[in-house]
User: Fold this.
Amino acid sequence: MCGRAITGSKTWAEFYEWQSLMIVPADPIKPSYNAAPTTINPIFIPDGPGTAGVMARWGIIPHWFKKPLSEMKYSTFNARSEDAASKPTFRDAMRSQHCLVPVQGYYEWTGAKGNKTPYLISVKTNAPAFCFAGLYSKIELPNFSGYTYTVLTEASGGPIEGLHHRMPVMLDESAYEGWLGCQVSIDEVTRIDPTRLKFHQVGPEVGNVRNNYPELMDVV
Assistant:
């Protein structure tokens, strides 16, 4: 699974240049080194022939959900890639609303309950970020209006297989356009080469979602 991510201190200007974005929000991206579900983070969505950057709430809300957000009683921050297409919460977005979730890395915990050790998992890259495969929605609720998203996950592999049995679907940059355009299925889309994955242990402070500073990423 993936329940903590790092968007870092990247700006819309950097993302605009990297992905040739057609549209970006006027408001800047707030630096985030410990993003958790329900936080607002940048994602990329299709916009006509190009790509737009938008801010979105982590935890997809399906278009048919019309109650106050407080009545959403189940978590939707991750979607299993193997069966998302058959789940009512995700199936419409799986067909036609793909997004990219740009990150610097994510955190995962391993070990016995009550004595878990956190790790930062990232990718060797010269780009401003790498992207998870995601699904998005745009909704209008009594107390929330805007975009929401989820991160697709799959069985772990490569050097991080021993940390957790699940991991985000991490896309190779060559796959971004096809995924956004819903031109390829989740089974067909090209993943990042596992040899590019890297990880290191971080401090327990990352366990508190109120902590949000660059030193959370430091090796311990």
